[in-house]
Amino acid sequence: MRRANERGLHWNISRARLRILRKPSDGIVPSVFSSNSLDIFSKHRTPPLPHQQEIHDTSRVHCQQGGLCLVVGRPGTGKTVIKESLKTLSEKEHLVATVARTLHTYTNTVKILCEAFRIEFESSAFQCERKPFAEAFSLNRSGKMLVTIIDDAHLMEMENLRKLRLLLDDFPKNHNLILIEQVELLSNLDLAVNQDIKSRVTYSVVTKRLHDDVVREFIHRELDRIGLAHSTFTTGATELIIRSADGVLHRCRNLCLSAMLEAVRAANGRTIDIDVINRVLMQPHWQNQVDLKDF
Question: Whole-angstrom Cα distance, residue 289 to residue 187?
Fold first, then answer.
């Protein structure tokens, strides 16, 4: 590269280009991605892994029988990937409504559903509940299936969830209510007062921490997607990433991305070795215990 010190360093990652500017006082400073960038290790663009695809396919089948499905897992175990894959279902056969703001009241939850149905919300949930019924039966007659996804369902008040279940109970059997949640909701469903909800569950699955081979496959697949060789991360660096991620996709994704940024910042060439990973792991949030005496 001609006059790298004057013009800056550029690391091209397929269509994603991270521009590195050299300033006399600040050293090497990374700027934002260019406008035609491709998300690197993005959870919204990541295709599901085989076990996630199985959950996707099973949830889709339950759309044909009025299902109530639970996708349970700790943070970072791939629930968002499953949700994003469900949102890509064919629009000719499915209408997917996603509720992510689960701390709302029941009225606001119904309002969000009306927005997904493209229905004008009236003054109250009671007056508006009839419109989703009409839309659901219209979808049923046209051969479409309705998928309602409640993200972070463990944050929803059980009374609101009960009202929503009662609302969908009278829908035609072409819908599926999918609750994406952490394990706390399972404890609530075990209570006797909530057996009316638990007894209607048609499918449930726990997204567990990933095996080392699956995490390694994920890293290689993402490198293929952005046009980089598997040797971008050395063998030692890959193994350290896998060990530090501990089977959690979020941790693996964030560590890989941070390592790539660190390698660009340090002008480390096109290979990321174990030293780069260790520099990232020195950041406080990667450590179990942080010495606070210097703060």
Answer: 30
